[in-house]
Amino acid sequence: MKTIDYSYFIERYNAGEMDKTEIKWFEKELNGNDSLCQEVMIRKKADQMLLHHDLISLRNKLSSLEKARKEKLVESAAKKATAIRYAAAFAGLVLIGSLFMITGKNQGTASLYSKNFSAYESPGPSRTPQLSVDDQFVKALQYYSEKDFLNAKALFTEYLNNNPENMQAMLLYGVTEMENKNYPDAKSSFNKIINNRNNLYIDHARWYLALCNIATGETAEAKQQMLAIKKSDSIYRNKARKILRNL
What is the pLDDT of residues 135-177, one digit of tens each? Predict the structure, then answer.
């Protein structure tokens, strides 16, 4: 009688791959066959152990991969944080440098303005070229000489409304507005004097207009005006030459 090799059937039985007919036949073979039953149990335990070993191995591999992934993320985050810190530091240096340049430039022009600006000294109402001098103009000159530039502005404004041809008053009003830090109105008055052409105050008006542009940071315009003054016979030409070295 030929002996049956149950190895194939044991594997199929433990793996659950048999159909109902095969299961019925194999369990009939197991009945009363202790050695076969024992082999089935041994094979089953071996399979379980192998499965358990594979699971442990897989788990260890997954754990190693997860650890490596986390380490890579930490390293990447550290590099990113370092890059951000360097970028922030660089941006800060650029900002500080820009502020320094802007502040330095503003301080430089402010210093240049303060060193060269001085109020025009009026010759007084008795030496003005106008035919008659009214009390309003005299009072405005008095406030001007006392450095009360707010009251001087009010009286010069009212006076010029009725006497727009008085270029001396126009110049004094412009300088008054420079003292009041009202540079747009000061520039307007100086331009009126320059455009009038037929008066004794054009050189003064050009000088103060250039200083106004320095005060307001309009360096290009100031340079152009100072260059024109330097090339002229103006009493301010030497001052203009010195200023041009610092603009």
Answer: 899 999 999 999 999 999 999 999 999 999 999 999 999 999 9
Using CA atoms, how far apart are residues 55 and 47, in angstroms rounded to an integer?
12
- Tell me the angle at which helices 202-215 and 34-116 cross, rounded to the nearest 10 degrees: 160
Number of domains the chain is built from: 2
CA-nearest of 220, 192, 190, 184 to 207 is 190
Rounded-to-integer distance, Cα 68 and Cα 62, Å: 10
Question: Are residues 134 and 58 part of one domain?
Answer: no
Question: Which residue type, as a one-letter code, is found at position 7?
Answer: S
User: Which residues, 6+ apart, have CB-to-CB distance to 100 below 8 Å?
Assistant: none
* Domain around 38: 7-66
Handedness of CA 128, 131, 136, 138 (dihedral sign): positive
Verify that 235 and 125 share a domain, yes or no. yes
Enter the pTM of the model: 0.56
Name the residue type at position 215.
Answer: A
Asked whether the beta carbons of 122 and 145 are under 8 A apart, the reply is yes
Tokens of 105: 């430039």
